């Protein structure tokens, strides 16, 4: 069964991870992660939680847990910040992967980014590559999502709202579900081959003979054509 590691970034007491007016980033991260987990499990995708509500789990312990469990993907959920901790106008959603993780991470990251932008209407800051620990040290494809800026007044209000948290969780999960259901369909297609099986009704030494049989088959309602074999 597919196993998705869901990581709510940081912890309640992680230094500096707050909005200018005191909202803890982890409060947002864990709420989105919880909704994401709920939606994934509804879709029969198994999940692994790498964070903990009472302690700030180290980055190494998070990736070690996912690696040891053999997770298929690592998804880290965050809220962003810019500048020296004060309010500013920088805004939008961005998603990160590591440069060594290949096409699977990039494909899922693009799907998550598109889902969030279309679903929230926030500024699209794109999919980027970065050397973050959880992206680099996870042995599976990994994606880190920044769902908006705590240092932007408008986005901080969204990040603090239950509706936006639930929406982000649903949109991230929806993209993951779409990715894996699409992969399953592709795999099934490859197994069956989507093959076409042709029936040969005859072989003739002259084109005229072949044309006579082709005409009879067409009259009977069959799709018939003539090919030359040498």
Automatic annotation (TrEMBL):
PANTHER family per UniProt: N-ACETYLMURAMOYL-L-ALANINE AMIDASE (PTHR30404), N-ACETYLMURAMOYL-L-ALANINE AMIDASE AMIC (PTHR30404:SF0)
Name of protein: N-acetylmuramoyl-L-alanine amidase
Coiled-coil spans in chain: none
Keywords: Hydrolase
Pfam families the UniProt entry points to: Amidase_3 (PF01520), SPOR (PF05036)
Keyword Hydrolase listed: yes
InterPro entries xrefs: MurNAc-LAA_cat (IPR002508), N-acetylmuramoyl_amidase_3 (IPR050695), SPOR-like_dom (IPR007730), SPOR-like_sf (IPR036680)
Organism (species): Jeotgalibacillus proteolyticus
Nucleotide-binding found in the keyword field: no
Upper taxonomic lineage: Bacteria, Bacillati, Bacillota, Bacilli, Bacillales
Any one Gene Ontology molecular-function term assigned to this protein's record: peptidoglycan binding
GO BP of this protein: peptidoglycan catabolic process
GO cellular component: outer membrane-bounded periplasmic space
Span of domain SPOR: 191-230
